Each structure stands twice: as C-alpha cells, then as structure tokens.
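Hi, here's the filled form for the chain we discussed.

Project: internal
Contact: R.S.
Residues: 144
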Amino acid sequence: MNTGPVDGRTVVTVPGHGRFHATAEALEMIAVFGGSLHCYQGSGGCRVQGLYFSRTRPKKYIACALDPPAETRAELTISVSHELAPRLDGAVLDFGNYNRLQRFVWTAIPAVKGPQCTCLRAMGKPAGKRSPCLDDIGVGITDL
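And the returned structure, exactly as it came back:
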C-alpha cells in the first residue's frame, strides 16, 4: 500500500488507530506555529463537534508519524488525544480561509456525522465561539 503524499497530502499515522492526511498548507502552518500541533476533542466547540487544535500537547497524547518524514518535516510533530484518535481514520487536515478567517480545519472526518469544520483555538480558555482564534482580527496569518 502506498502511504506517501497523495495530491499534495502527507499521510499521518496514528499508532493503533489508522491514518489521516495533512495538506501541504497545514504542514506549512504547523511549522509557522512552532512545529507542533495537537488535535483534541473537548466539550462544545465549533459546530458542537468539540474539535479543537492547540500548539501545546497535554500530558496524555498519541504522537503521530508523518510519512514520508522528509527533512523539512522532521521538526514537525502532530499529536492527537486518546478520545479523538479512533475518529480520525480517513480524515483530512487542512489550513486555509474558512468562515472568513485563516484556520486549521478537518475538511473530512468520515467517522463524524454532520458539519466537520473547526478552527484553531490557541488563546485563552476554550469556550466555543467565544474563544479567540489566531486570526480573529482578520489580518491573514500567512501575511504576517
């Protein structure tokens, strides 16, 4: 089975739980944000899916493997929470303009029914739509 890049996407393996894809844009922005992204499930959240992203990893997480681990990706780390891991097989992680803000999103999560978009909540306590996004002022993160 070919696990390398497909249509500009990199395969990310969650040990014991399957694989998802990360777009080149998502990987580029993970590098911009310090090289680390943690994906987790919490209460509330965008569209009541409870899906969040953070630049810091909690005490309990599952470290993912990027395939292929090219030199430019060696410093990137993606981890997921134990609660979210079983839901990510076949998912697609992207970064782009969604809902008029630049944000990380799951453009597909086959195991989740309904709307699947969620944004990076990186400042303050998670509080659904009241949590600030990195691009709340709308300047365009990639323009900084």
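Let me know if anything looks off before we file it.
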